[in-house]
Structures are given as C-alpha cells and as structure tokens.
Amino acid sequence: MRNSEGPSQVQSVDRAISVLEILAREGEAGITEISVELGVHKSTVSRLVSVLEARGLVEQLGERGKYAIGFGMVRLAGAATGRMDLAKLGRHSCQALAESLGETVNIAVADDGVAINISQARGTAAISTQNWTGQRTPLHATSSGKVLLANMDEAERRKLLRRKLEQYTPRTTVEPAELTLELDRVLEEGYAACFEELELGLHAVAVPILGPGGEVIAAMSASGPSYRLSKQRVRQIVRPMTQAAEELSSQLGYFKS
C-alpha cells in the first residue's frame, strides 16, 4: 500500500465502524439514512455496506430493504465475551487452586503462535514474584503451550512446528518429530509437563480447559521450583488440577455427555 493511500484507507475503516454503530443504535437503517448521518454520498455508503454484508457483519432485511447488524457481529461478540468470561471466572479458579497446591497457577490462551497468560494466582509456597499475566510464552517450551499446541488443528500444528523453534535451555525440545511424539502423549494422557524447558530450575504442568462445544480454549498450569515440584509431585497434582479445569469448563458452558 502506498503511503498516499493510507489516510483514505483509515477513513474507510472509520466510516465502516460508524455504519455498525448506527445500526447497533437504531436497530435498522437504510442507505439514505446512513448517508445523511455520516454526511457522505449514498454511493460511498453503499460500497461500505456491501463489504460489511459480504463479511456477514450486516444483513439486508428483505429485498432492497433496510440493513441491520448481521450474525457475524454476534460471532465476534461471542468470541470476545468468551475470553472475558474466561479471564473473570478463571481468577477465582486460579486462586482456589493456588491456595490448595501452594504453587503459582496460570491460565493461558493461544494467540498468533504463542501462549498468552490471562490470569494468575500465587500460592502460599510460591517464592517467585514474577507476574506472568499478559506475558507471551512459547508454545513448545511451556506446559500450557504444549496443551494448546497438542489440541490445535493438525494443519495449524504442522505450520507452527515448521518454524525454527528456540532453544531456551538444554532441555528444550526443538526437533519437530520428537515434539510431535510428545504432543501425542499429551492428547493421550490429558496433561502436559515441562521440566526446565523454559527456565532452568522451573517445572510446570498443565491441563486443558474446554469451551461449550468441547473444544480446548485454554490451559491451566501450575508451576514451581524443581526441588519442590518434582516429577512425582507433578503426577500427584494432575488429578486436582483436572478437577479444577473441569469445574471451570462447566462454568463456561461445557457439559460432559
């Protein structure tokens, strides 16, 4: 895009958003009504509405009728609401589990090839003051990331594994074939563990959180120092973590059949 086209493109986006705001406020409106409110020619509004309609964000009410918000907006709103609900409900779940285990508990979601922590609670035995909330962490070198990566669409997973994977410690798995085998085990066993793969001296274990349709939408992890969160203890806390994740999943609308 040439620089001279920038302002025009931004203005079009601003006008398209204004169209959506008008329809959200009025319920329905015609091309003429929208053009009058925006102060632009009807042909400009018609082009904007056509693009929004093609994306499912607005819909026409009857042949050559007025326009209203489309189901595409419902889908986008649902995705945003779901993430906000997850963060809100997750805080309570994290705190309860952190108090029970004594370790730091996080909830992470996948976003553009990384894991983003959206909620955290520190347990009574936690010694680190690091706040992971909002931090972007690698999928292949964290327990949460492995849960998210394992449950991705196969094509998306292959695409991510074709990237050069960063070696954070000598224990980080970076070979795609080896990592694929580990992800298969995650699916089979229902949890993922990382032992000094992101940081030396740090162990972690994670379990999936399910959405209303049974899809994995996030991962709940517990992390702590290797001397306390041993491999044996990791196996011991998988069950209470799974129970906590299942309770949160049910609050988000998932019900086991």
UniProtKB/TrEMBL annotation:
Residues 72-254 form the IclR-ED domain. Keywords: DNA-binding, Transcription, Transcription regulation. GO terms for molecular function: DNA binding; DNA-binding transcription factor activity. Residues 10-71 form the HTH iclR-type domain. Signal peptide: none annotated. It comes from the Bacteria. InterPro entries: GAF-like_dom_sf, HTH_MetabolicPath_Reg, Tscrpt_reg_IclR_C, Tscrpt_reg_IclR_N, WH-like_DNA-bd_sf, WH_DNA-bd_sf. Transmembrane segments: none annotated. This is DNA-binding transcriptional regulator, IclR family. GO terms for biological process: negative regulation of DNA-templated transcription. PROSITE patterns: HTH_ICLR (PS51077), ICLR_ED (PS51078). It comes from Amycolatopsis xylanica.
